[in-house]
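Q: I'm writing a short explainer about Ubiquinone biosynthesis O-methyltransferase for a general audience and would like to include a description of its predicted shape. Could you first generate the structure from this sequence?
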Amino acid sequence: MSNATVTNATIRPEEAAHFGALAADWWDPRGSSAMLHKLNPVRLAFLREAVDLHWGGDVESVKPLAGKTALDVGCGAGLLCEPLARLGARVTGVDAAAENVAAARAHAAGAGLAIDYRHGELGSLGLGKFDLVTSMEVIEHVEDKAAFVAQLAAHLAPGGLMVLSTPNRTLASRTLLIGAAEAFGAVPKGTHHWDDFVTPDELRELLEGAELAMGEPKGIAWSVGKGLHLSGDMALNYVVTARCP
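A: Of course. Here's the predicted structure. Afterward I'll give you a sentence or two in plain language.
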């Protein structure tokens, strides 16, 4: 369920290769990224509420990010960037896999969306600061998590908002997100490495190390009746905000 990989300084080259190989069918809701297509609306619901609360905007507005800049790190082929653009943001997406960036640019062009996609190391692209920084299902794929979080923080503008999501390191996530999901083809084999999953307490420490305050995490759970949904249960996956204290 990864949105792919991030920078030369923090990424494992084999991770970039793994996700770059999936670029061709990233936008196929029944393809190798099918789980991301199911996950995306849940993450967007959390993000929309977080945006409204953070900036005190009109909850009925269809463009709550109008006039704001957004950076999605580990953007893959743009599954999150495109909704952010439709919410009114001026969006930049960064990914370590050149194949993903090419697929993202092609899809955005076809959709008539002006999104600035970049390939390479986040810290060397000279992108400046953004009102909103997102990185969904990415931190579990980077080599140096503290360095990665520090790079995210360096790109967050004063008064800005960060939103992150990642699998939790629990017995349930090992059983379902790796064992069952890979066995039944819900995610490609080799997508996840359980030892790299980050617990909420560990993420809080990483964010505090980058001088950011973490909000209350919300679980992303699964049930037969609801599918993937926001929940108080963080055993599988969770999403959280961060900002300058």
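A: For your explainer, you could say: The chain has seven helices and nine strands.
Q: Perfect, that's easy to follow.
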